[in-house]
Design brief:
transmembrane, mainly alpha, transmembrane helix, membrane
Length: 344
């Protein structure tokens, strides 16, 4: 009889064990729900602000180009002025298409629609809408001449390509590229006010050789500073995105160094893409500008080489700056963890 109570007591002691095993399962379910809801959408900090700023910059570039072409002093040099302003318009359209597409796919992500195909299609469609709107504005406000269709077509193409860039899965990196590229474009325009003093600083004189030497050093200084701006802005944006992700989910994985490398190099890559669009879609306008005179042909060749060199400098300096800034945030603990992870 003592065994039966003992057996019953053993059975009774075994019965609560499933209850105790199920007890931790119940609180786990409500904990996983908010985490899934928090980490589902890809965090893109400041996506609406980036879209509005990029749109404002595109409008400013289109308006300034229109004013330059329609100015009374332009006359027969309208083609030359259009060729000179077209690279800025293409770069602005690339950034605007990417920024608005990034905002669109972020809205989809917040609604739980994270399929890669849907994301890419939505990004390209958003870039297409921006491009069509810009092309319509060009055809509506610009004079009807040989340059109008070229400007409208290349602007639309650049916006579509920018939208396709925003279809990538790494949304914070794309946001960093957009923010850094926009800041770099604004910096280049603001830097134009310092070019004359720099020409004097680098020894520009009366001879053509001194002018070319000073122009080369001014261009390199601009590219170096633009790369620094691009790298610092990319690093700052990713740091901001990381902090916001930790607030939403403390267990969110940290971005590795390739993300910072790509974000820092992104503005330079966009400038290279803009150059490709210019030399393909805008070839007709460049040929017209080069055919005006021998001096215009030399100027267009020199400007093309300068833009290409500037894009390469921004690419490498931006990537290096972002990597150095990221490396300085790695303390001994972080480095030990990075070394321990492959062992585990």
């Amino acid at each position: 009889m003592t065994k039966q109570p003992g057996g019953s007591s053993a059975a009774e002691s075994e019965q609560p064990s499933p209850v105790t095993d199920e007890a931790p399962v119940a609180p786990d379910r409500p904990e996983t729900a908010p985490e899934d809801g928090a980490t589902g959408p890809s965090p893109v900090p400041g996506a609406p602000v980036l879209a509005l700023l990029a749109l404002g910059w595109l409008v400013a570039m289109l308006w300034s180009t229109r004013e330059a072409i329609h100015s009374a002093a332009a006359g027969v040099t309208a083609i030359s002025l259009s060729a000179f302003a077209l690279p800025g318009v293409i770069s602005a359209a690339l950034v605007a298409g990417a920024a608005f597409a990034l905002f669109g796919v972020d809205l989809l992500a917040r609604r739980g629609r994270e399929r890669a195909t849907l994301r890419f299609v939505a990004a390209v469609a958003t870039g297409l809408l921006v491009g069509l709107a810009a092309a319509f504005a060009v055809n509506l406000t610009y004079a009807d001449n040989a340059t109008t269709n070229v400007i409208a077509g290349t602007t639309a193409a650049a916006a579509i390509i920018g939208g396709a860039v925003a279809g990538a899965r790494t949304a914070p990196v794309v946001g960093a590229v957009v923010a850094a590229a926009l800041g770099t474009l604004i910096f280049v325009v603001a830097f134009s006010r310092a070019r004359d003093p720099l020409f004097d600083l680098f020894g520009a004189g009366e001879t053509q050789e001194s002018l070319l030497s000073a122009a080369k050093w001014v261009s390199r200084t601009e590219s170096l500073l633009a790369g620094l701006v691009a790298g610092l802005l990319a690093f700052g944006y990713l740091t901001w995105a990381r902090r916001r992700a930790i607030r939403r989910d403390p267990a969110a994985p940290a971005l590795r160094w390739p993300a910072y490398l790509l974000a820092g190099a992104g503005p330079g890559l966009l400038l290279l893409v803009a150059e490709v669009i210019l030399r393909t879609g805008g070839r007709k306008l460049l040929d017209l500008a080069s055919a005006l005179s021998e001096a215009d042909a030399v100027a267009q060749t020199s400007l093309g080489t300068s833009r290409l060199d500037n894009a390469i400098w921004v690419l490498f300096v931006g990537a290096l700056t972002a990597m150095i800034a990221f490396g300085r945030t790695l303390g001994p603990t972080s480095r030990d963890e990075d070394e321990a992870e492959p062992v585990d």
